[in-house]
Amino acid sequence: MEILGYRRPNGQVGIRNHIAIIPTAVCSSTVAANIAAQVPGAVALPNQHGCCQIGADHEQTVRTLIGLGKNPNVGAVLVIGLGCEGVPIRQVAEEIAATGKPVEVIVIQEVGGTLKATAEGLRKAAELARKVAHLQPEKMDISEVVLAIECGGSDFTSGLASNPACGIASDLLVVAGGTSMLSETTEFIGAEHVLARRCKTPEIAEKLIRYVRDCEERAKLLNVDIRGGQPTPGNIAGGISSIEEKSLGCIHKAGHAPIQDVLAYGEVPGGKGLYVMDSPGQDIESITGMVAGGATVVIFTTGRGTPTGCPLAPVIKITGNERTFKMMEDNMDIDASTIISGEETIEQVGKRILDMVADVANGHMPKAESLGHKEFGIYKIAPTY
Questions:
Q1: Can you list the alpha helix ranges (DSSP code H) found in the chain?
Q2: What count of other Cβ atoms lies within 10 Å of the Cβ of residue 267?
Q3: Which of 93, 221, 336, 368 has the smallest C-beta neighbourhood within 10 Å, fewest atoms?
Q4: CA-CA distances (angstroms) from residue 349 to 16, 238, 246, 323, 336?
Q5: What are 303's strand-pairing partners?
Q6: Secondary structure (3-state) at 87
């Protein structure tokens, strides 16, 4: 199966050619957004972080910002710093530039404020746009795709239809030599032992169990019951009775391929095959982590319906609920309820999902992308000080 892709200088392949405008702190997010709004092909990644973070939380934000700039769907990057934040502005730019793509930097305090920074940013972003405009996609094998798998607003149809169909699509991609990522550690709770049996080595299985245990411990430290947020009120209204039931449905998205490794949030897979990433059950933060890890396209199952997208990677929406597909037809791409009605098998819908992944890689815009959904958020694991 062929796709059209952009071969980056470091050998990675993207299916889009964005100019990423990356603020290193919340204080420079408005400047980044104003620049992106005026330059064709530019996308801002406004984030609420960048300062007063410590330890692993600080390191995760830095790693995520660098990973987003390195994503193969990005052809060029403009880093916007304030000048006094905790995130090392020039280190972020230098590590992204190591991929070989063009990178520019502006520091608001050094150029004389937001108006001057915006003007200089527009000049630099326009120059970057001219540099990447001549790049043309080439025919590539689908094995170059890095697939992120997500679910949100799940209901009883998710575990029965859309999630297993995504698992088939993931398996087909892995067999073809591609890479797939499952996330949402919160939604492994109660089913982590099932996933662990599929890990390539006992050490990887232990890493997966440890991430789930750490997730539970963080909730205990807050003296709260994690079941207050998982399953969500919408999940419960949709027929999911417990966190264990939700988890057993969630892990169907990973198909049956062996798990090559368990990744930290925003970490890049070390090879091909199926990977698991430690991330929260919150959809936007989970997708952001996988895209920072190099995902170039997202398949997203939903029973209740959600319109969310991503700034850098196109998001394909799949539902196993016939009513949701009809009620939210403007947002849904694939109707997997045909599995429940008996019109199609799980395998047939899984093949249809992979076919749409190929179509999207060849330039087709899924509905979230065509409607301009660019929801974005970085997972925070500690208080701000």
A1: 29-36, 55-70, 89-97, 108-111, 114-133, 156-157, 163-175, 192-196, 202-221, 233-237, 243-250, 283-292, 322-327, 338-341, 346-361, 367-370
A2: 21
A3: 221
A4: 25, 22, 21, 18, 6
A5: none
A6: coil
- The 42-44 sheet, strands edge to edge: 42-44, 18-23, 74-81, 103-107
Query: Does the pLDDT of residue 101 top 80, yes or no?
Result: yes
Report the distance separating Cα 225 and Cα 210, nearest Å.
19
313 vs 295: CA distance, rounded Å: 7
Please choose, from the candidates 221, 63, 307, 255, the residue with its C-alpha nearest in 3D space to the C-alpha of residue 147. Answer: 255
Q: What gap in Å lies between CA 108 and CA 88, rounded to an integer?
A: 14
Tokens describing residue 146: 């890095």
Spatial contact of 197 and 290, defined as CB atoms under 8 Å apart: no
Residue 352 is predicted with a pLDDT of 98
Omega within 30 of 0 (cis) for the link into 231: yes
One-letter amino acid at 251 equals I
Q: Which tokens in the block code for residue 253? A: 């998205």
Q: Give CA–CA dist 108/314, Å, rounded.
A: 31
CB of 9 closer than 8 Å to CB of 99? yes
Question: Is the distance from CB of 182 to CB of 276 less than 8 angstroms?
Answer: yes
Mean pLDDT over the full length of the chain? 95
How far is CA 89 from its chain centroid? 23
pLDDT in tens, 321-356: 999 999 999 999 999 999 999 999 999 999 999 999
Cα of first residue to Cα of last residue in the chain, in angstroms, is 50
Question: Which residue has better confidence, 250 or 204?
Answer: 204
Which tens digit of pLDDT belongs to each residue from 113-157?
A: 999 999 999 999 999 999 999 999 999 999 999 999 999 988 899
How many distinct helices (H) and strands (E) make up the chain? 16, 14
Question: Pairing mode, if any, of strands 179-182 and 146-151?
Answer: parallel
**What's phi and psi for 366, nearest 5 deg?**
-65, 165
* pLDDT, tens digit, 9 for 90 and up, residues 217-272: 888 888 877 766 677 787 877 777 777 877 887 889 999 999 999 999 999 999 99
**Between 378 and 239, residue with greater pLDDT:** 378
